[in-house]
């Protein structure tokens, strides 16, 4: 019998979350962000599941966009990092990809290639990763007109740094900067909204929003879990309880003897570890569940297994399925205990964990 560590992917939940994103986007249309292998859920399966809902996809690279095409989907695909080489522009034109241009070098490539690819321009409104400075936008537009490429421009995008924090004023400042920078060209579309912006009070999302983590049930908002935002968990990470024993008071568990029992207690070993992508820094107290009952991790996570305290599930038996995150335990809770975010956990599940899909 094969090892029973699996990631179950509920595609109906994915579609439900996309519908919520569309509702919260208001008049804006929602392009589904499916980069990083569909946030670890499988880019082909995610693209196919959203095919009758999403009018546009967004990915990071040309290779990801080609994976969408290989899955049989024909919607436009936005390349959020733009072209990584000059030849990418020709491929984009041929296959209906929409690169986001953010640098002078990419403009040079566009000029040299005379590509007919439709594209977006990124405006740096304060996050300072990628994008043209607002003060440079007029010269960029003049250059596009001179090279005859302005007719292929779709619009402008920016990205928020602090939309996960409703108390932070930076989102309002970035929005104002974006509006001022693009005001001379109202005929072009605009896109600002990541997942967090869908929940940020009063935030305009303009023409296109870009929901990502919320599609997969993870929370984009500080201090709130996906279920608290009415998002449905899409991935359930499950493994088997492979051994149980009784710890006596004073006995230790695992590497470094990091957990010492303060009383007699029943414990179990679960066949999942950091080799599967479960976070090594999830320490004692991190929640899991058996038979719908919440339990806790104890000691250090190993490469292939971890230990749990079975006090919360007294009837648990060897062979039972343990939910590491899913319907009972939010992936956001686990991420918080591990000092990270749900994005990292979902994208970090390794190839040795099969994805099992349900509709």
From TrEMBL:
Kindly list the cofactors needed.
pyridoxal 5'-phosphate
Catalytic residues identified in the record: 35, 255
Q: Give all residue intervals belonging to the Alanine racemase C-terminal domain.
A: 234-358
Q: Which SUPFAM superfamilies would you find in this protein's record?
A: Alanine racemase C-terminal domain-like (SSF50621), PLP-binding barrel (SSF51419)
Give the enzyme class.
isomerase
Pathway it acts in? Amino-acid biosynthesis; D-alanine biosynthesis; D-alanine from L-alanine: step 1/1
Give the GO molecular function terms.
alanine racemase activity
Give the superkingdom in one word.
Bacteria
**The keyword Flavoprotein is assigned to this record:** no
Q: Which UniProt keywords apply?
A: Isomerase, Pyridoxal phosphate
Tell me, in a sentence or two, what this protein's role is.
Answer: Catalyzes the interconversion of L-alanine and D-alanine. May also act on other amino acids.
Assigned protein family? Belongs to the alanine racemase family.
Q: Which HAMAP family match?
A: Ala_racemase
Name under which the protein is recorded: Alanine racemase
Origin species, per record, is: Marinobacter salinisoli
